[in-house]
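task queued by scheduler; priority normal; single chain, no ligands, no partner chains; default sampling; output format set to structure tokens
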Amino acid sequence: MRRKCTKRRQKAEAGENEVRAIDRGVWLASRGILSLLFFVYIPPVHASCRLGQVAEFHLEWVDNSPIINGQVNGHPVRILLETGSSLTFITNKAAHQLNLPVREYRERAVIGVGGREGIETAVVNELQIEGFVLKDYTIGVVPTEIHDANGVAILQLGADFLSHFTTELDFAHGVVRLLKPQDCKLEQLAYWTSSYFRIDVSPFSPATPLLVLHIKLNGKPMKAHLVSGSAISFVTPQSARDAGVVPGGQNTEPAGDIVGLKAEPIPTWIGRFDTLDVGGETIKNARLRIGEVFPGTKYRPRLNNSADMIFGSDFLQANRLVIVPGKDAILFTYNGGAVFQRERSDEAAPGIPDRSLPLDKGSTTLHQD
């Protein structure tokens, strides 16, 4: 088991490692987003880089899925953080219980594990997430319940929201940070480390809020979606076949059914794959769940931005990431332990990379008083 990637070194100029004072200010974004922004000067390669922390969310784990506490118009709600959804939405049942004005919206649908559902919309006067406030926020309304995290969440926070920020996912410490960099180079954004891996992604922005990662499975180029709401990672059956692993054949074993958006059972298997390459991190003998996570839809692996694989919460807990909209990249470091889990429990699968050999970019530290 081995991690591979090209090394790169940059040297800081004299005096550029000075830690500067912290500015505090208020940042007002479009679409009703209002929050306090802390400008934090970091002392890496370029002293002009300022990394502002807009907000910090603390996660609670329910069935291996990340839950955040928030409020809708002053009422407490449980929120599922779902990087795999291009739409932030609330359930229809919750919208009516909270007396939100719901109107029909025919032009969009939400697609998830198990199928697709039509959506409506509602305007939330105030959505508050740990001090971060959105005013007059238009949110999707879907008829289905949210089945991830044992169904405790009534609101799903999607990638459309995250696409407005540089987002740090530090699942190992139960934290998500919304960042606003100024005059920073890409390599400076992984501020907690002197070295990192880089995953190439398809264009990610508020106009295209879908995280599509470019990976290789058994040497075959494929696309993966980053789906934090999924407790474990999956490979579609067709993509497993393309990689030489046939569900029900050699190197696989039955793994039971799962449920998704429509709560209908989906058969799955555990398959062993020789190699999985993610941004230069090579995982050998990876044991991955195989399942048709998008049955009965047009969402197939051969379409433009569709998924051959989804990386779930298990992958995110094994790695620390920073997602950078507009830069077509995710930077990450390996925390340790198993990268993928076969079950929703704490039992972890084989597939632990060896000692890291990531890109080297010099030391940086985030300081905030």
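post-processing summary
- The domain at 193-360 is CATH 2.40.70.10 (Cathepsin D, subunit A; domain 1).
- The CA atoms of residues 90 and 155 lie 4 Å apart.
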